[in-house]
Write the structure tokens for this entry.
Amino acid sequence: MALIHCIKQASTSGQNVTYYQPQALRYSFDNDLLSTEQRISYEEDGFLLIKGLVSGEDIDRFRVAFERICRREVQVPGLVVMRDVSIAKSEFVPNQKAISKLQDFQEEPELFRYCNLPQILNYVECFTGPNIMAMHTMLINKPPDTGNKTSRHPMHQDLHYFPFRPADRIVCSWTAMEKIHRQNGCLVVLPGSHHGTLKEHDYPEWEGGVNKMYHGVRDHDPNHPRVHLEMDKGDTVFFHPLLIHGSGMNQTQGFRKAISCHYASADCYYIDVRGTTQENIGQEVKEIAARKYAVNDVTFEDTWAVRGRLVQGDRTNL
């Protein structure tokens, strides 16, 4: 079989030539959408940025749906509304300034339409295969920092939150709803960190506090090269669940919005996280579910099974 070669500029005056056998590309499938260069980039870095993938019209519709929820004009079953820890105890005002994140919007038709966009699913299929489940949905409304640095999101791996495997058949789609840059807290990623294993996570010991469920990696190399993903409205990044990433403070006066969905192959399977590094998040999720729904026999896996929605193909397992 012929080898694929990729020439990359080295730090010296010469060039590096890396050779790949097609079957060695473990993180994506060859389905004629991704170029060889894109597949190799994802293989090496763990993320792939696609410019202008989602239309401005669609994003404006998502914004309107978000604002309706903020004004309490609609009630969405299962929706989790989160507020920044620095403003959570202040007097509640029913508008977007009080809400930092919506989570689990799978029962809101307009927002969930994002998860079904054909152009998104075409790319998702490159990483999951044809049977696709939408497992986790979020609309992030990063607020201007109040001065306590609580608008930061600690460096973490998304797989920490997921009791299903294999990791290589899970991918996140994350779309900028406006121009996102370093000043308003763009994503920061550690390229290549997806080649490692799932690390231990817990709440970082940050002055000013940490938002609920915002666990961070306990140890990662502070000297690892970082990439700040500055994005325009409609740009979408796809990334692996083991990629270490986070975001900085929002140092502007406006809110920084993004919408995202984690997808998994329907062929994935659930695991028992007891006795693993994920036991702490599993226990925390169970406690939250017990308080919210007054049930005590729910498992960590159960909390995910009820959220998952088939968006393409057959629901073969998950």
